[in-house]
Amino acid sequence: MAPRANWKGYLKLSLVSCAVSLYPASSSSSRVSFNTINRKTGNKVKRQYVDSETGETVEPEDQAKGYPVSKDTYMLVDESELEAIHIESTHTIDIVKFVPRAEVDPRYLEAPYYIAPNERVAEEAFSVIRDAMRDKDVVGLGRVVIARRERVMMLEPLSKGILATVLRYAYEVRGEQPYFEEIPDLQLPAELKEMAQVIIERKAGHFHPEEFNDRYEDAVVALIRTKQAGLPTTPAEEPSRPSNVVSILDALRKSIAAEGGPAPKPAKINAAAAATPAAKPKAASKAKGGASKPAAKAPAEPAKARKAK
How is the chain split into domains, by residue range? Predict the structure, then answer.
């Protein structure tokens, strides 16, 4: 049985539309969670909103949203006023554009959802939209309102349904230039790169997500079970921290040997070739905070008005 949908509406392509349901494709419910406890009494504590000036508790019925217009001055916005805002994407995923999947920068991907028809009469139109995207090898970009915010979704065929991934807006993605601009361009010896490629080849495989587990989460679960059993807890040994590599060439040779198989024979290279000359760092740009263009589209800086929730 499929989980309960957290959004129901219509998928629309021009004049073709069909009733669909939106299901979250990921979940964090299996993670260990803790309550905040009063250490002295052992009782669970609860959060309260307190007036910043009077210090008095503010009851839920007296709480309202406020947009800051100046220092310590807020414009009240009622829930009813927000609920009165209706745009087409409130109940419709409107596909506005089709693009090659490779053009969507992975930095824009945020949260995955599944889209499926929720009525038998909608199955034919749903299948037409899904198969047309698959045949043309493109993904759709559509708009939809989730939690009172209009989001852009990337739609792509997945098995018999559609995978919808919420995308971040351009102003939410930071450009890489401020972080990478001071990294120098190095002329690396061919032997270093070849030995690194040997390690990559020996570690090569295929992506199987079940091979990876959250080791910290496992340790937390083990700690809880130990305490439940009334057994003493022992702190884990501090993991060794990697040190700065003095000789990259020696470290690569030892790494290859550690991965199994014979280590390659040391190449006859002179000290000059073994060195790693560093080019002069590029001059930092005057506007260091500026963002460069990502692969898909250049992120923009958020406008002040977007601070309003």
Answer: 1-26+56-178+296-309
User: Global pTM?
Assistant: 0.69
Per-residue confidence (pLDDT) for residue 131, from 0 to 100:
97
Axis-axis angle for helices 248-258, 190-203 (nearest 10): 20
- The answer to whether the beta carbons of residues 213 and 222 sit under 8 Å apart is no
Alpha-carbon gap, residue 264 to 271, rounded angstroms = 19
Using one digit for the tens of pLDDT, what is the confidence trace for 119-135? 999 999 999 999 999 99
Digit-coded pLDDT (tens) for 38-51: 999 999 999 899 99
Fold of 1-26+56-178+296-309: Ku70; Chain: A; Domain 2 (2.40.290)
Q: Tell me which amino acid residue 292 is.
A: S
- Nearest CA to 115 among 88, 99, 95? 95
- Three-state SS for 195-248 is HHHHHHHHHCCCCCHHHCCCHHHHHHHHHHHHHHCCCCCCCCCCCCCCCCCCCH
Count H helices and E strands in the chain, helices first: 7, 9
